[in-house]
């Protein structure tokens, strides 16, 4: 990321499922603090994405007509049909010259953040301890996504990265579609895993806060917290913006 940007550089617009509060607001604040050279805006998608449309129009008014007004970074770890549709709708209705990045995963930093959240709950060895000869608190992990089957498919590389960090089996399952979490738990128990942890591959706003914990309880597993306002997620959002700038 360049340390300085011209005044006409596109705004970084973070598009968050739901409203622009809570975890999304904390992440936006973190991106601003770490990247003061970027104009950072946050727009909640709500049910109609009008807030995002307004943010894009405002960004365009502050910039030359022939330049890019904004780079939209979805605060999502993978594809999400509802959010993706709302973002496309807002971009079309605004008529503004913008680029929409892919979601924040898969990425090694995402796997690292997931590892940290597991360790926070005592469900994985902390990073500094994982190379020592200390037994793992669990036998396997289910990486839980939302967004249906496409999101689960996209999360496979993240699962591989997380499995490498944990040196444990990691299967992907969907909280709102296939493959089901119960099926993943059955497969893991069939290979001898008794202690299973559920790792929500979620930032937070894209799902009911209680959903992951409820599903984990149904399969007799413990559950890590969602990724939330983690510094690595803020870093990924800024990197997504910087990658688009580097392509121009």
Total of helices: 9
CATH class of the largest domain: Alpha Beta
Sketch the topology as an H/E string, one letter per element: EHEHEHEHEHHEHEHEH
How large is the share of residues in beta strands? 5-15%
Assembly form of the protein: single chain
Tally of separate domains: 2
What global shape is seen? elongated
Question: What radius of gyration results from the CA coordinates?
Answer: 19 Å
CATH topology of the largest domain: Rossmann fold
Number of strands: 8
Give the end-to-end Cα distance, rounded to a whole number of Å: 13 Å
What is the CATH architecture annotation of the largest domain? 3-Layer(aba) Sandwich
Strand order in the largest sheet: 2-1-3-4
Please outline the major beta sheet. Answer: 4 strands, parallel
Q: Mean pLDDT score, rounded? A: 94
Question: Would you give an account of this structure?
Answer:
The protein folds into two domains: 11-104 and 230-247, Rossmann fold; 108-223, Rossmann fold (3-Layer(aba) Sandwich), CATH 3.40.50. 42% of the residues lie in helices and 15% in strands. The chain has helices at residues 22-34, 50-61, 81-94, 108-120, 148-154, 156-166, 181-190, 211-218, 231-247; strands at 11-16, 40-44, 70-74, 98-100, 140-145, 170-174, 196-200, 222-223. The radius of gyration is 19 Å and the shape is elongated. The relative contact order is 0.17. It comes from Planobispora siamensis. This is Sirohydrochlorin ferrochelatase.
């Amino acid at each position: 990321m360049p340390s300085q940007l011209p005044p006409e550089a596109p705004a970084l617009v973070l598009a968050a499922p739901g409203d622009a509060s809570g975890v999304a607001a904390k992440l936006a604040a973190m991106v601003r603090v770490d990247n003061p050279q970027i104009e950072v805006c946050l727009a909640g998608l709500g049910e109609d994405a009008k807030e995002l449309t307004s943010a894009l129009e405002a960004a365009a008014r502050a910039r030359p007509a022939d330049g890019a007004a904004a780079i939209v970074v979805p605060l999502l770890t993978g594809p999400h049909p509802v959010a993706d549709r709302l973002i496309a709708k807002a971009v079309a209705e605004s008529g503004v010259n913008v680029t929409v990045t892919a979601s924040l995963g898969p990425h090694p930093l995402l796997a690292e953040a997931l590892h940290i959240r597991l360790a926070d709950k005592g469900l994985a060895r902390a990073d500094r301890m994982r190379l020592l000869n200390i037994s793992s608190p669990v036998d396997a992990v289910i990486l839980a996504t939302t967004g249906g089957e496409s999101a689960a498919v996209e999360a496979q590389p993240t699962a591989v990265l997380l499995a490498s960090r944990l040196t444990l089996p990691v299967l992907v399952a969907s909280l709102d579609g296939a493959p089901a979490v119960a099926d993943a738990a059955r497969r893991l128990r069939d290979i001898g895993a008794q202690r299973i942890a559920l790792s929500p591959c979620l930032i937070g706003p894209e799902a009911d806060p209680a959903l992951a914990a409820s599903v984990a309880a149904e399969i007799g597993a413990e559950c890590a917290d969602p990724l939330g306002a983690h510094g690595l997620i803020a870093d990924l959002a800024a990197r997504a913006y910087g990658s688009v700038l580097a392509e121009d």
